[in-house]
Amino acid sequence: MIKSFFTNRIWSRLMVAVFALLVAVGFGTAVNAIHSWGPYHWARTANPFTLKLGDNVPLAWDTYLTTASSDWSLSSVLDTSVVAGGTRPKTCRPTAGRVEVCAAKYGNNGWLGLAQIWITGGEHITKGAVKLNDTYFSKPAYNTSAWKSLVMCQEVGHTFGLDHQDENFSNPNLGTCMDYTSDPDGPPSNEHPNAHDFEQLELIYAHLDSITTVSATAPSKKNGRNQSFNFELPDTTDPDELREWGRVVRRDARNRASLYERDLGRGEKVLTHVLWAE
């Protein structure tokens, strides 16, 4: 059993490395083959595991959260369940062992939605947060079923460790919510996951861990006091000024910062994926 555990772990990481190499050297068949954030995943001792999604959204968003939960639960390695929210939507403070999904008017700061994951030990996700900016979703351009479906699905997908399949808004739709687009309802529609997303989840969660970070109840502690690492969002459209999110790790095809990383010390960090309004 121990041999099998390590064999599976090594094999899954070898596959990731091979696919990444193929993408780097430009093999056409490998384009979008790997779209994970890196080694980040929820630690768990068995598959499938169930991840709770805290409902901190108004009634108008409930259908989109329920649909995203049902869509992602089609995965063979994970299920999600929508549960009562554990935070205020405006602050959207994370809860250990689960994902808090929030919607509020966060202001004219340039972004439609974002996803954050908290990491310990270099790879294990301990908590996640999704924020949907109703300042923009209340405007006609984004107050549509297609846009709300895409952004909800994409940001929730990020909290599993998934990255985008494509970050060029001008490319044809790939038929997945993990694809940047200017036309989410297509055709093809980018409102739901596709088969490739589920294949990627199988790669991410191919190995098992000896510990679990899912459904934990105790938040991180420092100096004997509970710490909930969360950051106020500056009212700016300049991504380089968003220092609360840390250093810029990657930019999208329009040269806008799309991924940030902040070192929290003591082996912890937080990553923030940002989807900017057009």
Automatic annotation (TrEMBL):
The lineage of its organism: Bacteria, Candidatus Tayloriibacteriota. One of its GO terms (molecular function) is metallopeptidase activity. It comes from Candidatus Taylorbacteria bacterium RIFCSPHIGHO2_02_49_25. Residues 216-230 have a biased composition (Polar residues). This is Peptidase M10 metallopeptidase domain-containing protein. Residues 216-237 are annotated as: Disordered. InterPro entries: MetalloPept_cat_dom_sf.
